Amino acid sequence: MKKTLFLLCTLWCGWQQAAAQKEITLKGVIRNPADKRVIVANLSASQLEQKQNIKEATLADDGTFTVSIPATEAYNWMVILNGRQRSDFIAPNGAQLTINADAGNWENAIQYAGKGREIPEFFAAYTRDRGMTVAYSKNTQDLGRLEPGAYEKALDSLMADEYAYLDKKKATIPKDFYTYWKDYIRYMNYSAMLIYPIRHEMIRQNTNNIRSIAPELYAVPQKVPAAFDDKFLTLGPYQSYVESYFAAKLNAAGFTNVLRMDPTNNTEDRSQALQQTDSILQLLYKTTPKKTAELMAAKAIQAGMPTWTTGEMQQRLAAYKRQFPKSPNNEILESVYKDAKKFNPGEPAVDFAFTTIDGKPMKLSDLKGKVVYMDFWASWCGPCKGEMPYAKKLKEHFKDKKDVVFLYVSIDEKEDAWKKGIEAMDISGIHTRTPGWQGEIATRYGISSVPSYFLIDKKGNFVLKKTPRPSQSEELKKEIEKLL
Protein backbone atom coordinates (compact mmCIF):
# COMPACT_ATOMS: atom_id res chain seq x y z
CA MET A 1 0.00 0.00 0.00
CA LYS A 2 1.61 3.13 -1.14
CA LYS A 3 2.09 6.23 0.97
CA THR A 4 -1.29 7.81 1.39
CA LEU A 5 -0.03 11.33 0.87
CA PHE A 6 1.74 10.47 -2.36
CA LEU A 7 -1.20 8.42 -3.57
CA LEU A 8 -3.40 11.50 -3.16
CA CYS A 9 -0.78 13.60 -4.93
CA THR A 10 -0.89 11.29 -7.92
CA LEU A 11 -4.67 11.08 -7.99
CA TRP A 12 -5.26 14.82 -7.88
CA CYS A 13 -2.50 16.65 -9.75
CA GLY A 14 -3.59 19.37 -12.17
CA TRP A 15 -4.53 18.94 -15.84
CA GLN A 16 -1.98 21.26 -17.44
CA GLN A 17 0.71 23.57 -16.17
CA ALA A 18 -0.01 27.23 -16.60
CA ALA A 19 2.50 29.33 -18.53
CA ALA A 20 3.17 31.55 -15.50
CA GLN A 21 2.21 30.13 -12.11
CA LYS A 22 0.95 32.52 -9.47
CA GLU A 23 0.38 32.19 -5.77
CA ILE A 24 -2.83 30.90 -4.28
CA THR A 25 -4.02 33.07 -1.41
CA LEU A 26 -6.35 31.81 1.28
CA LYS A 27 -7.76 33.95 4.04
CA GLY A 28 -10.75 33.57 6.24
CA VAL A 29 -11.98 32.40 9.59
CA ILE A 30 -12.21 29.06 11.40
CA ARG A 31 -14.83 28.98 14.11
CA ASN A 32 -14.45 26.56 17.04
CA PRO A 33 -10.87 25.77 16.00
CA ALA A 34 -9.29 22.51 17.13
CA ASP A 35 -5.82 24.06 17.10
CA LYS A 36 -4.24 27.49 16.93
CA ARG A 37 -2.39 26.47 13.80
CA VAL A 38 -3.75 26.14 10.28
CA ILE A 39 -1.69 24.21 7.73
CA VAL A 40 -2.18 24.50 3.97
CA ALA A 41 -0.47 22.14 1.50
CA ASN A 42 -0.38 22.00 -2.29
CA LEU A 43 -0.05 18.31 -3.10
CA SER A 44 -0.04 18.55 -6.90
CA ALA A 45 2.61 16.25 -8.37
CA SER A 46 3.75 16.21 -11.97
CA GLN A 47 7.49 15.68 -11.50
CA LEU A 48 9.57 12.64 -10.59
CA GLU A 49 10.49 14.21 -7.26
CA GLN A 50 8.27 16.77 -5.59
CA LYS A 51 9.41 19.41 -3.15
CA GLN A 52 7.25 20.00 -0.11
CA ASN A 53 4.81 22.83 -0.72
CA ILE A 54 3.40 23.50 2.74
CA LYS A 55 2.59 26.73 4.56
CA GLU A 56 1.55 27.29 8.15
CA ALA A 57 -0.17 30.19 9.91
CA THR A 58 -1.29 30.93 13.45
CA LEU A 59 -4.95 31.76 13.96
CA ALA A 60 -5.67 35.17 15.43
CA ASP A 61 -7.81 35.35 18.56
CA ASP A 62 -10.91 35.77 16.38
CA GLY A 63 -10.02 32.70 14.29
CA THR A 64 -8.85 34.60 11.21
CA PHE A 65 -5.82 33.69 9.13
CA THR A 66 -4.05 34.42 5.83
CA VAL A 67 -1.82 32.02 3.88
CA SER A 68 -0.20 32.30 0.45
CA ILE A 69 1.23 29.22 -1.25
CA PRO A 70 2.79 28.74 -4.71
CA ALA A 71 0.63 27.26 -7.45
CA THR A 72 2.31 24.53 -9.48
CA GLU A 73 -0.43 23.60 -11.95
CA ALA A 74 -3.46 25.08 -13.64
CA TYR A 75 -5.52 23.21 -11.04
CA ASN A 76 -3.95 22.47 -7.67
CA TRP A 77 -4.94 19.72 -5.24
CA MET A 78 -5.01 21.43 -1.87
CA VAL A 79 -5.41 20.38 1.75
CA ILE A 80 -6.20 22.61 4.72
CA LEU A 81 -5.68 21.20 8.22
CA ASN A 82 -6.70 22.41 11.66
CA GLY A 83 -5.94 19.90 14.37
CA ARG A 84 -7.38 16.60 13.15
CA GLN A 85 -9.88 18.36 10.90
CA ARG A 86 -9.04 18.22 7.20
CA SER A 87 -10.63 19.59 4.05
CA ASP A 88 -9.52 18.77 0.51
CA PHE A 89 -10.24 21.09 -2.41
CA ILE A 90 -9.00 22.12 -5.84
CA ALA A 91 -7.80 25.67 -6.39
CA PRO A 92 -7.03 27.23 -9.77
CA ASN A 93 -3.75 28.98 -10.43
CA GLY A 94 -3.84 32.50 -8.96
CA ALA A 95 -6.94 31.88 -6.83
CA GLN A 96 -7.70 34.41 -4.07
CA LEU A 97 -10.06 32.53 -1.80
CA THR A 98 -11.89 33.47 1.37
CA ILE A 99 -12.78 30.48 3.54
CA ASN A 100 -15.46 30.42 6.22
CA ALA A 101 -15.31 27.18 8.22
CA ASP A 102 -16.52 25.64 11.44
CA ALA A 103 -14.10 23.04 12.79
CA GLY A 104 -17.01 21.39 14.60
CA ASN A 105 -18.83 20.73 11.31
CA TRP A 106 -15.95 20.97 8.87
CA GLU A 107 -17.07 19.44 5.57
CA ASN A 108 -20.72 20.53 5.73
CA ALA A 109 -20.12 24.09 6.93
CA ILE A 110 -17.12 25.20 4.86
CA GLN A 111 -17.86 28.02 2.41
CA TYR A 112 -15.74 29.65 -0.31
CA ALA A 113 -15.78 33.15 -1.75
CA GLY A 114 -13.45 35.24 -3.89
CA LYS A 115 -11.57 34.73 -7.14
CA GLY A 116 -11.62 31.08 -8.28
CA ARG A 117 -14.31 30.01 -5.79
CA GLU A 118 -16.33 28.09 -8.44
CA ILE A 119 -13.89 25.16 -8.53
CA PRO A 120 -13.55 24.51 -4.76
CA GLU A 121 -17.32 24.96 -4.49
CA PHE A 122 -17.80 22.28 -7.15
CA PHE A 123 -15.39 19.99 -5.36
CA ALA A 124 -17.09 20.51 -2.00
CA ALA A 125 -20.45 19.63 -3.58
CA TYR A 126 -18.91 16.63 -5.32
CA THR A 127 -17.45 15.42 -2.02
CA ARG A 128 -20.81 15.74 -0.25
CA ASP A 129 -22.78 14.15 -3.10
CA ARG A 130 -20.40 11.48 -4.34
CA GLY A 131 -17.65 11.03 -1.75
CA MET A 132 -14.64 12.27 -3.76
CA THR A 133 -13.02 10.25 -6.54
CA VAL A 134 -11.66 7.84 -3.95
CA ALA A 135 -15.24 6.56 -3.76
CA TYR A 136 -15.35 6.35 -7.56
CA SER A 137 -12.16 4.25 -7.53
CA LYS A 138 -13.70 2.02 -4.86
CA ASN A 139 -16.76 1.53 -7.07
CA THR A 140 -14.61 0.43 -10.00
CA GLN A 141 -12.77 -1.98 -7.69
CA ASP A 142 -16.03 -3.50 -6.50
CA LEU A 143 -17.08 -4.09 -10.12
CA GLY A 144 -13.96 -6.20 -10.62
CA ARG A 145 -15.83 -9.28 -9.43
CA LEU A 146 -17.96 -9.23 -12.60
CA GLU A 147 -17.24 -11.19 -15.76
CA PRO A 148 -15.88 -9.18 -18.74
CA GLY A 149 -19.12 -8.32 -20.51
CA ALA A 150 -20.97 -7.35 -17.35
CA TYR A 151 -17.93 -5.41 -16.11
CA GLU A 152 -17.76 -3.28 -19.25
CA LYS A 153 -21.47 -2.46 -19.10
CA ALA A 154 -21.30 -1.57 -15.41
CA LEU A 155 -18.19 0.59 -15.95
CA ASP A 156 -19.85 2.40 -18.84
CA SER A 157 -22.87 3.06 -16.65
CA LEU A 158 -20.64 4.36 -13.85
CA MET A 159 -18.87 6.75 -16.21
CA ALA A 160 -22.15 7.92 -17.73
CA ASP A 161 -23.44 8.68 -14.26
CA GLU A 162 -20.31 10.76 -13.54
CA TYR A 163 -20.71 12.66 -16.79
CA ALA A 164 -24.38 13.32 -16.04
CA TYR A 165 -23.46 14.79 -12.66
CA LEU A 166 -20.81 16.96 -14.30
CA ASP A 167 -23.25 18.18 -16.95
CA LYS A 168 -25.63 19.34 -14.24
CA LYS A 169 -22.83 21.50 -12.82
CA LYS A 170 -21.55 22.70 -16.19
CA ALA A 171 -23.03 26.18 -15.92
CA THR A 172 -21.37 26.77 -12.53
CA ILE A 173 -17.74 25.96 -13.45
CA PRO A 174 -15.23 27.31 -16.01
CA LYS A 175 -15.30 25.65 -19.42
CA ASP A 176 -11.70 24.41 -19.24
CA PHE A 177 -12.29 22.87 -15.80
CA TYR A 178 -15.33 21.06 -17.20
CA THR A 179 -13.03 19.55 -19.84
CA TYR A 180 -10.39 18.76 -17.24
CA TRP A 181 -12.84 16.86 -15.04
CA LYS A 182 -14.25 14.94 -17.98
CA ASP A 183 -10.76 13.83 -19.01
CA TYR A 184 -10.02 12.95 -15.41
CA ILE A 185 -12.96 10.50 -15.37
CA ARG A 186 -12.07 9.16 -18.82
CA TYR A 187 -8.54 8.19 -17.81
CA MET A 188 -9.78 6.75 -14.52
CA ASN A 189 -11.96 4.43 -16.57
CA TYR A 190 -9.11 3.51 -18.90
CA SER A 191 -6.99 2.62 -15.87
CA ALA A 192 -9.79 0.53 -14.39
CA MET A 193 -10.07 -1.41 -17.67
CA LEU A 194 -6.32 -1.99 -17.88
CA ILE A 195 -6.02 -3.52 -14.41
CA TYR A 196 -9.30 -5.47 -14.63
CA PRO A 197 -7.76 -8.95 -15.27
CA ILE A 198 -5.54 -8.75 -12.19
CA ARG A 199 -8.26 -7.20 -10.03
CA HIS A 200 -10.81 -9.82 -11.11
CA GLU A 201 -8.48 -12.71 -10.29
CA MET A 202 -7.48 -11.22 -6.94
CA ILE A 203 -11.15 -11.14 -5.99
CA ARG A 204 -11.94 -14.57 -7.46
CA GLN A 205 -8.89 -16.30 -6.00
CA ASN A 206 -9.03 -14.28 -2.76
CA THR A 207 -5.29 -13.63 -2.78
CA ASN A 208 -2.77 -10.98 -3.82
CA ASN A 209 -0.44 -13.68 -5.13
CA ILE A 210 -1.95 -14.38 -8.55
CA ARG A 211 -0.50 -17.43 -10.28
CA SER A 212 -2.46 -17.29 -13.53
CA ILE A 213 -5.06 -15.17 -15.34
CA ALA A 214 -7.75 -16.52 -17.67
CA PRO A 215 -7.00 -15.33 -21.24
CA GLU A 216 -10.58 -14.16 -21.87
CA LEU A 217 -10.21 -11.48 -19.18
CA TYR A 218 -7.76 -9.59 -21.40
CA ALA A 219 -10.58 -8.73 -23.78
CA VAL A 220 -11.28 -5.73 -21.53
CA PRO A 221 -7.83 -4.04 -21.56
CA GLN A 222 -7.45 -4.82 -25.26
CA LYS A 223 -10.24 -2.30 -25.94
CA VAL A 224 -8.36 0.59 -24.29
CA PRO A 225 -7.05 2.97 -26.98
CA ALA A 226 -3.58 4.48 -27.23
CA ALA A 227 -4.45 7.98 -26.03
CA PHE A 228 -1.07 9.51 -25.20
CA ASP A 229 -0.84 13.29 -25.01
CA ASP A 230 1.64 15.43 -23.07
CA LYS A 231 -1.04 17.96 -22.19
CA PHE A 232 -2.53 15.40 -19.78
CA LEU A 233 0.77 14.63 -18.06
CA THR A 234 -0.12 16.40 -14.83
CA LEU A 235 -3.40 14.51 -14.66
CA GLY A 236 -2.99 11.70 -12.11
CA PRO A 237 -5.20 9.13 -13.86
CA TYR A 238 -3.32 9.77 -17.11
CA GLN A 239 -0.08 8.77 -15.39
CA SER A 240 -1.77 5.65 -14.00
CA TYR A 241 -3.05 4.87 -17.49
CA VAL A 242 0.42 5.16 -19.04
CA GLU A 243 1.92 3.06 -16.23
CA SER A 244 -0.55 0.24 -16.93
CA TYR A 245 -1.09 0.46 -20.70
CA PHE A 246 1.88 -1.41 -22.14
CA ALA A 247 2.07 -3.94 -19.30
CA ALA A 248 -1.59 -4.88 -19.86
CA LYS A 249 -1.08 -5.30 -23.61
CA LEU A 250 2.08 -7.40 -23.11
CA ASN A 251 0.42 -9.49 -20.40
CA ALA A 252 -2.40 -10.24 -22.83
CA ALA A 253 0.20 -11.57 -25.27
CA GLY A 254 1.74 -13.72 -22.53
CA PHE A 255 4.96 -11.70 -22.52
CA THR A 256 5.96 -11.13 -18.90
CA ASN A 257 9.05 -10.85 -16.75
CA VAL A 258 10.24 -14.38 -15.95
CA LEU A 259 12.51 -15.21 -13.04
CA ARG A 260 13.61 -18.83 -12.73
CA MET A 261 15.88 -20.79 -10.42
CA ASP A 262 18.79 -22.58 -12.10
CA PRO A 263 18.59 -26.15 -10.71
CA THR A 264 22.26 -26.83 -11.48
CA ASN A 265 23.58 -24.33 -8.95
CA ASN A 266 20.40 -23.21 -7.15
CA THR A 267 20.82 -19.57 -8.25
CA GLU A 268 18.47 -17.15 -9.96
CA ASP A 269 18.28 -17.19 -13.74
CA ARG A 270 17.62 -13.53 -14.55
CA SER A 271 18.06 -13.76 -18.33
CA GLN A 272 14.35 -12.99 -18.83
CA ALA A 273 13.71 -11.25 -15.52
CA LEU A 274 13.26 -7.83 -17.13
CA GLN A 275 12.12 -8.70 -20.63
CA GLN A 276 8.71 -7.08 -20.20
CA THR A 277 10.19 -4.08 -18.39
CA ASP A 278 12.64 -3.50 -21.24
CA SER A 279 9.84 -3.74 -23.79
CA ILE A 280 7.79 -1.19 -21.84
CA LEU A 281 10.73 1.22 -21.70
CA GLN A 282 11.37 0.88 -25.43
CA LEU A 283 7.68 1.40 -26.22
CA LEU A 284 7.66 4.51 -24.04
CA TYR A 285 10.74 5.86 -25.82
CA LYS A 286 9.43 5.11 -29.31
CA THR A 287 5.65 5.52 -29.22
CA THR A 288 4.76 8.15 -26.63
CA PRO A 289 5.28 11.94 -26.72
CA LYS A 290 8.60 13.21 -25.38
CA LYS A 291 7.45 14.57 -22.01
CA THR A 292 5.30 11.51 -21.33
CA ALA A 293 8.23 9.22 -22.15
CA GLU A 294 10.66 11.25 -20.07
CA LEU A 295 8.55 11.17 -16.90
CA MET A 296 6.96 7.74 -17.14
CA ALA A 297 10.17 5.89 -18.12
CA ALA A 298 11.93 7.58 -15.19
CA LYS A 299 9.13 6.46 -12.85
CA ALA A 300 9.37 2.89 -14.16
CA ILE A 301 13.14 2.83 -13.60
CA GLN A 302 12.81 4.45 -10.17
CA ALA A 303 10.23 1.84 -9.12
CA GLY A 304 12.25 -1.08 -10.49
CA MET A 305 15.72 -0.26 -9.20
CA PRO A 306 15.20 -1.58 -5.64
CA THR A 307 14.66 -5.09 -7.11
CA TRP A 308 17.36 -4.99 -9.84
CA THR A 309 20.98 -6.07 -9.72
CA THR A 310 23.73 -3.47 -10.01
CA GLY A 311 24.34 -4.36 -13.65
CA GLU A 312 20.64 -4.20 -14.48
CA MET A 313 20.36 -0.77 -12.88
CA GLN A 314 23.43 0.56 -14.67
CA GLN A 315 22.26 -0.67 -18.07
CA ARG A 316 18.79 0.87 -17.88
CA LEU A 317 19.98 4.10 -16.33
CA ALA A 318 22.52 4.51 -19.14
CA ALA A 319 19.83 3.90 -21.77
CA TYR A 320 17.60 6.53 -20.17
CA LYS A 321 20.42 9.08 -20.16
CA ARG A 322 21.00 8.45 -23.87
CA GLN A 323 17.35 9.22 -24.52
CA PHE A 324 17.20 12.27 -22.25
CA PRO A 325 20.76 13.54 -21.64
CA LYS A 326 19.60 16.88 -20.20
CA SER A 327 16.71 15.60 -18.09
CA PRO A 328 16.61 16.74 -14.44
CA ASN A 329 15.48 13.19 -13.69
CA ASN A 330 19.03 11.90 -14.28
CA GLU A 331 20.30 13.28 -11.00
CA ILE A 332 17.32 11.83 -9.13
CA LEU A 333 17.77 8.40 -10.70
CA GLU A 334 21.49 8.45 -9.88
CA SER A 335 20.60 9.03 -6.24
CA VAL A 336 18.08 6.16 -6.32
CA TYR A 337 20.75 3.94 -7.89
CA LYS A 338 23.24 4.70 -5.13
CA ASP A 339 20.65 3.97 -2.45
CA ALA A 340 19.44 0.78 -4.14
CA LYS A 341 22.96 -0.66 -4.31
CA LYS A 342 23.01 -0.72 -0.51
CA PHE A 343 20.38 -3.48 -0.51
CA ASN A 344 22.06 -5.84 -2.99
CA PRO A 345 22.62 -9.47 -1.96
CA GLY A 346 25.82 -9.81 0.04
CA GLU A 347 25.79 -6.22 1.25
CA PRO A 348 25.71 -5.71 5.05
CA ALA A 349 22.18 -5.08 6.30
CA VAL A 350 21.70 -1.46 7.29
CA ASP A 351 21.99 -1.47 11.07
CA PHE A 352 19.64 0.42 13.37
CA ALA A 353 18.84 0.70 17.04
CA PHE A 354 15.31 0.06 18.24
CA THR A 355 13.20 -0.58 21.30
CA THR A 356 10.98 -3.65 21.37
CA ILE A 357 7.33 -3.59 22.35
CA ASP A 358 8.49 -4.88 25.76
CA GLY A 359 10.80 -1.89 26.21
CA LYS A 360 14.04 -3.77 25.52
CA PRO A 361 16.74 -1.76 23.68
CA MET A 362 18.27 -3.64 20.74
CA LYS A 363 20.13 -3.25 17.46
CA LEU A 364 19.61 -5.25 14.30
CA SER A 365 23.26 -6.32 14.51
CA ASP A 366 22.45 -8.03 17.85
CA LEU A 367 20.69 -10.68 15.77
CA LYS A 368 23.82 -11.79 13.91
CA GLY A 369 24.05 -15.57 14.04
CA LYS A 370 20.35 -15.83 13.24
CA VAL A 371 18.36 -15.69 10.00
CA VAL A 372 16.15 -12.59 10.16
CA TYR A 373 12.95 -12.16 8.17
CA MET A 374 12.07 -8.47 8.51
CA ASP A 375 8.55 -7.22 7.75
CA PHE A 376 7.69 -3.51 7.44
CA TRP A 377 3.94 -3.22 7.99
CA ALA A 378 1.11 -1.07 9.42
CA SER A 379 -2.13 -1.87 11.23
CA TRP A 380 -4.14 0.07 8.59
CA CYS A 381 -2.54 -1.73 5.62
CA GLY A 382 -4.91 -4.19 3.91
CA PRO A 383 -2.23 -6.18 2.04
CA CYS A 384 -0.20 -6.40 5.26
CA LYS A 385 -3.18 -7.94 7.03
CA GLY A 386 -3.69 -10.34 4.12
CA GLU A 387 -0.16 -11.70 4.56
CA MET A 388 -0.39 -12.34 8.30
CA PRO A 389 -2.20 -15.72 8.16
CA TYR A 390 0.52 -16.99 5.79
CA ALA A 391 3.21 -15.61 8.11
CA LYS A 392 1.63 -17.48 11.01
CA LYS A 393 1.89 -20.77 9.10
CA LEU A 394 5.48 -19.95 8.15
CA LYS A 395 6.42 -19.38 11.79
CA GLU A 396 4.75 -22.65 12.73
CA HIS A 397 6.94 -24.41 10.13
CA PHE A 398 10.10 -22.96 11.70
CA LYS A 399 8.96 -23.08 15.34
CA ASP A 400 11.76 -25.48 16.34
CA LYS A 401 14.45 -23.41 14.61
CA LYS A 402 15.73 -21.02 17.27
CA ASP A 403 18.04 -19.39 14.73
CA VAL A 404 15.14 -18.03 12.62
CA VAL A 405 13.79 -14.68 13.81
CA PHE A 406 10.77 -12.73 12.59
CA LEU A 407 11.24 -8.99 13.10
CA TYR A 408 8.23 -6.69 12.59
CA VAL A 409 8.78 -2.97 12.05
CA SER A 410 5.52 -1.03 12.10
CA ILE A 411 5.19 2.42 10.54
CA ASP A 412 2.05 3.17 12.56
CA GLU A 413 1.92 6.78 13.71
CA LYS A 414 -0.03 5.86 16.83
CA GLU A 415 1.30 3.43 19.42
CA ASP A 416 -2.20 2.34 20.42
CA ALA A 417 -3.13 1.35 16.84
CA TRP A 418 0.15 -0.57 16.53
CA LYS A 419 -0.42 -2.57 19.70
CA LYS A 420 -4.06 -3.28 18.90
CA GLY A 421 -3.07 -4.51 15.45
CA ILE A 422 -0.54 -6.95 16.92
CA GLU A 423 -3.10 -8.26 19.38
CA ALA A 424 -5.96 -8.49 16.87
CA MET A 425 -3.88 -10.47 14.35
CA ASP A 426 -1.94 -12.44 16.97
CA ILE A 427 1.43 -11.53 15.41
CA SER A 428 4.29 -13.31 17.19
CA GLY A 429 7.90 -12.21 16.82
CA ILE A 430 10.07 -9.24 17.74
CA HIS A 431 8.17 -5.97 17.42
CA THR A 432 9.23 -2.35 17.10
CA ARG A 433 7.77 0.83 15.62
CA THR A 434 9.22 3.60 13.47
CA PRO A 435 6.48 6.26 13.41
CA GLY A 436 5.38 7.18 9.89
CA TRP A 437 7.07 7.13 6.53
CA GLN A 438 9.73 9.54 7.79
CA GLY A 439 10.61 7.40 10.81
CA GLU A 440 14.34 6.69 11.17
CA ILE A 441 14.20 2.97 10.32
CA ALA A 442 11.76 3.45 7.41
CA THR A 443 14.01 6.19 6.03
CA ARG A 444 17.17 4.09 6.32
CA TYR A 445 15.49 1.29 4.40
CA GLY A 446 13.86 3.55 1.81
CA ILE A 447 10.39 2.27 2.62
CA SER A 448 7.81 3.78 0.26
CA SER A 449 5.17 1.06 0.49
CA VAL A 450 4.04 -1.61 2.90
CA PRO A 451 4.31 -4.49 3.25
CA SER A 452 8.05 -4.58 2.46
CA TYR A 453 10.27 -7.55 3.30
CA PHE A 454 13.99 -8.20 3.80
CA LEU A 455 15.81 -11.50 4.38
CA ILE A 456 19.11 -11.30 6.28
CA ASP A 457 21.55 -14.19 6.70
CA LYS A 458 23.48 -15.22 9.80
CA LYS A 459 26.40 -12.98 8.84
CA GLY A 460 24.09 -9.97 8.83
CA ASN A 461 24.01 -9.58 5.03
CA PHE A 462 21.08 -9.10 2.68
CA VAL A 463 20.17 -12.32 0.85
CA LEU A 464 17.82 -11.36 -1.95
CA LYS A 465 17.08 -8.31 -4.07
CA LYS A 466 13.37 -9.10 -3.85
CA THR A 467 12.33 -11.07 -0.81
CA PRO A 468 9.25 -13.31 -1.18
CA ARG A 469 6.11 -12.48 0.77
CA PRO A 470 4.74 -14.96 3.32
CA SER A 471 2.01 -15.87 0.80
CA GLN A 472 4.81 -17.08 -1.49
CA SER A 473 5.30 -19.72 1.16
CA GLU A 474 7.15 -22.50 -0.64
CA GLU A 475 9.61 -20.12 -2.26
CA LEU A 476 10.23 -18.35 1.04
CA LYS A 477 10.67 -21.59 2.98
CA LYS A 478 13.35 -22.74 0.55
CA GLU A 479 15.21 -19.44 0.82
CA ILE A 480 15.23 -19.54 4.64
CA GLU A 481 16.18 -23.22 4.78
CA LYS A 482 19.19 -22.60 2.52
CA LEU A 483 20.54 -20.25 5.19
CA LEU A 484 20.27 -22.66 8.13
TrEMBL record:
<keyword id="KW-0676">Redox-active center</keyword>
<protein>
    <submittedName>
        <fullName>Thiol-disulfide isomerase/thioredoxin</fullName>
    </submittedName>
</protein>
<dbReference type="GO" id="GO:0030313">
    <property type="term" value="C:cell envelope"/>
</dbReference>
<keyword id="KW-0413">Isomerase</keyword>
<dbReference type="InterPro" id="IPR036249">
    <property type="entry name" value="Thioredoxin-like_sf"/>
</dbReference>
<keyword id="KW-0201">Cytochrome c-type biogenesis</keyword>
<feature type="domain" description="Thioredoxin">
    <location>
        <begin position="343"/>
        <end position="484"/>
    </location>
</feature>
<dbReference type="InterPro" id="IPR013766">
    <property type="entry name" value="Thioredoxin_domain"/>
</dbReference>
<dbReference type="GO" id="GO:0016491">
    <property type="term" value="F:oxidoreductase activity"/>
</dbReference>
<dbReference type="InterPro" id="IPR013740">
    <property type="entry name" value="Redoxin"/>
</dbReference>
<dbReference type="InterPro" id="IPR050553">
    <property type="entry name" value="Thioredoxin_ResA/DsbE_sf"/>
</dbReference>
<dbReference type="GO" id="GO:0017004">
    <property type="term" value="P:cytochrome complex assembly"/>
</dbReference>
<keyword id="KW-1015">Disulfide bond</keyword>
<dbReference type="GO" id="GO:0016853">
    <property type="term" value="F:isomerase activity"/>
</dbReference>
<dbReference type="Pfam" id="PF08534">
    <property type="entry name" value="Redoxin"/>
</dbReference>
